[in-house]
């Protein structure tokens, strides 16, 4: 059987990985480099099949590095922090990975989150990032779309920009560590390439994720550059007004965000500091249900 997708020019046949045959079904998503299909295994499992063409800007070595890092993380992960890597198939023009299927992402459930859920997913994110960092890997592209959900639990996906580190202080060219613009730390948003440390980049991205989850919207600055008005205002730490998207963020979250979304990496919170913060440690409570207009007027934002 064949699944032809004319828009994205991807034709996938049944593939065999290990001793299992996987039949591609619907297209689940499409990133900068890959097209991801839902697939059915001959062992009755449901999987995700990520197909990547080998191209000059996504060469064979890069894709294989993504596979190896993801596989290594998947093998040592006993707690389910990352999407499981099942296997891989190499073709002359493409590489196909077979992954655990995760039906939702933080991006697809945004708008419906309660403060308790926001805290649950943020805690799972921080624990997952701590896990990969402790295994000497930085993700470098954490975003709502790359944080998938399976059985209500957050799983880190897409290791396409991940880096293996020899030491925590190892530096990489900023151009190799640029993920999704809204989630990128200021040190990689500069025009001239510089050397950057990858762990604080992941911490910054977790801050943007928390900011968006708390608001139940994708509102955040376009890029962390002072030329971008909203970011400039954030950096200036002026008192926020109703026109700032962070205006309604509750104090405990805001205190933590100020420490995470800190341009100076020597002052930026570490994962340990985040885990020791009052917001991380103290359980959020479900909002008190009110009847009538007060509840209706509070709109899509998580209510505190
Ligand atoms: N394991 C999975 N289960 C279900 N859906 C998935 C899975 N992996 C990826 N997807 C879907 O496919 C989309 C693209 O996947 P992925 O981010 O891995 O591709 P990419 O080309 O590397 O993307 P990017 O542009 O972020 O680099 C995801 O946003 C998600 O919607």
Automatic annotation (TrEMBL):
Keywords: ATP-binding, Kinase, Nucleotide-binding, Serine/threonine-protein kinase, Transferase. It comes from the Eukaryota. Residues 22-280 form the Protein kinase domain. Pfam families: Pkinase (PF00069). InterPro entries: Kinase-like_dom_sf, Prot_kinase_dom, Protein_kinase_ATP_BS. One of its GO terms (cellular component) is cytoplasm. Residues 283-304 are annotated as: Disordered. GO terms for molecular function: ATP binding; protein serine/threonine kinase activity. One of its GO terms (biological process) is establishment of cell polarity. ATP binds at residue 50. PANTHER family: CALCIUM/CALMODULIN-DEPENDENT PROTEIN KINASE KINASE-RELATED (PTHR43895), SERINE_THREONINE-PROTEIN KINASE STK11 (PTHR43895:SF150). This is Protein kinase domain-containing protein. It comes from Caenorhabditis brenneri.
């Amino acid at each position: 059987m064949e699944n032809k997708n004319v828009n994205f020019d991807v034709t996938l046949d049944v593939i065999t990985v290990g001793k299992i045959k996987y039949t591609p079904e619907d297209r689940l998503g499409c990133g900068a480099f890959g097209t991801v299909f839902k697939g059915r295994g001959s062992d009755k499992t449901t999987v995700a099949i990520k197909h990547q063409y080998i191209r000059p800007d996504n060469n064979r070595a890069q894709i294989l590095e993504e596979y190896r890092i993801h596989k290594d993380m998947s093998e040592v992960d006993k707690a389910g922090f990352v999407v499981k890597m099942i296997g891989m198939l190499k073709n002359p023009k493409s590489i196909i990975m077979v992954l655990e299927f995760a039906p939702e992402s933080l991006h697809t459930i945004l708008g419906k989150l309660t403060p308790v859920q926001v805290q649950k997913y943020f805690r799972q994110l921080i624990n997952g990032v701590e896990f990969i960092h402790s295994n000497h890997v930085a993700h470098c592209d954490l975003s709502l779309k790359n944080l998938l959900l399976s059985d209500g639990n957050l799983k880190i996906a897409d290791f396409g920009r991940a880096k293996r580190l020899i030491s925590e202080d190892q530096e990489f060219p900023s151009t190799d560590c640029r993920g999704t613009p809204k989630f990128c730390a200021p040190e990689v948003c500069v025009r001239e390439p510089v050397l950057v440390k990858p762990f604080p980049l992941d911490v910054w991205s977790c801050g943007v994720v928390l900011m968006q989850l708390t608001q139940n919207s994708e509102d955040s600055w376009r890029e962390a550059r002072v030329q971008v008005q909203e970011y400039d205002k954030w950096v200036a730490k002026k008192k926020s007004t109703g026109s700032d998207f962070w205006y309604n963020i509750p104090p405990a979250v805001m205190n933590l965000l100020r420490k995470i979304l800190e341009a100076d990496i020597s002052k930026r919170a570490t994962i340990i500091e985040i885990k020791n913060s009052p917001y991380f440690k103290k359980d959020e409570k479900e909002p008190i249900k009110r009847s009538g207009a007060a509840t209706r007027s509070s709109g899509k934002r998580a209510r505190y």
